[in-house]
Amino acid sequence: MENSIQQVELQIQESSRQISKDDETNQQQVSGRSNKHYGWWFRIFLYIIFLLVGQSAATLLGRFYYDHGGNSKWMATFVQSAGFPILIPLLFIFKFSKKIDSSSREKPSRTSLFVIYVFFGLLLAGDNLMYSYGLLYLPVSTYSLICASQLAFNSLFSLLLNAQKFTALILNSVVIVTISAALLAVHSESDTSTKLPVGKYVIGFVCTVAASATYALYLSLLEVAFKRVIKSETFDTILKMQVFPSFVATCVCVVGLYASGDVRVLTAEMDGFQKGQVSYLMTLIWTAVLWQICCIGLLGLIFEVSSLFSNVISTLGLPAVPVFAVIFFHDKMDGEKVIALLLALWGFLSYVYQNYLDDSKAKSDINDAATITH
């Protein structure tokens, strides 16, 4: 009898130890997930800062270049991609910092990667050229608010290419942002009443809308390339998707500079720059650097979340540019632009609220699943 009691006590003690070990293991797993979650949010925050600061400052410098004597569309396009060499050292730094992936994924062939880099490089060069025309022929405040239409285009492409679900709030966001851009197209008298001819205003408007659509397609195709072709989870993958297409886009711009004859007048343009030669060079150099910082943030958000999310964050920075344009370039901020600005903010907040609802639902589903398991 005593032996039986002792055996039962020993079994109870072993069971207690096993439960204690399981609890410790679960706590370690939860702690690991928590640390991973915090690390993910830190990266997202960093990418958002890169995108917003780079985009806003580079756009303002692009307008500064045109306002003080710069006139080459190909040079303005060139600096949007020519800053990629500053990222090359990072390729070597992050080459071996790879995430552990339990699944053995087949790596894409060099031919596939070459085709991807060339395709995105050509698409990037064409898109940057259209943006350069838009920034030349439009006030920077109008230009930035029209660029908000890229959210509507990206929502459409995300639905078609990335299986992004459409809700009432996202549809509201798309419609409101589209109305915001259309409002600027219909009420353009305050801008065309200045030195700018109506014809050039129309060209600038069409080029900016076309560039926004192309940019949205570019982002959605990037997400497809990351998920279906490249299938890699390393930061150097993001860098390569910036460096190599930028190299192709830069080569296209060099050809454009020579074919258009702009290369022959660049020296005269630098000499005639109103703020001096040093200011001319620094404007171009910092514009190139800031666009690369912006693109790293953009690609990071696509890699970590989605193309639509990265575009929403990009749209968030657009309303800030007209405010800075009024301060630094003395652009007019009339009633139409104020309404367009408020509509753009409304559209952005609608999308952010939808993301908040999705995140809350996902957390609730995880908690319910954990409750059922236990």
TrEMBL record:
Pfam families noted in UniProt: PUNUT
Entry keyword Membrane: yes
Membrane topology category: Multi-pass membrane protein
Name of the protein: Probable purine permease
Subcellular localization: Membrane
Protein family (similarity comment): Belongs to the purine permeases (TC 2.A.7.14) family.
Superkingdom of the organism of origin: Eukaryota
Organism: Capsicum baccatum
Keyword terms: Membrane, Transmembrane, Transmembrane helix, Transport
Transmembrane regions: 40-62, 74-94, 114-134, 140-161, 168-186, 198-222, 243-260, 280-301, 308-329, 335-353
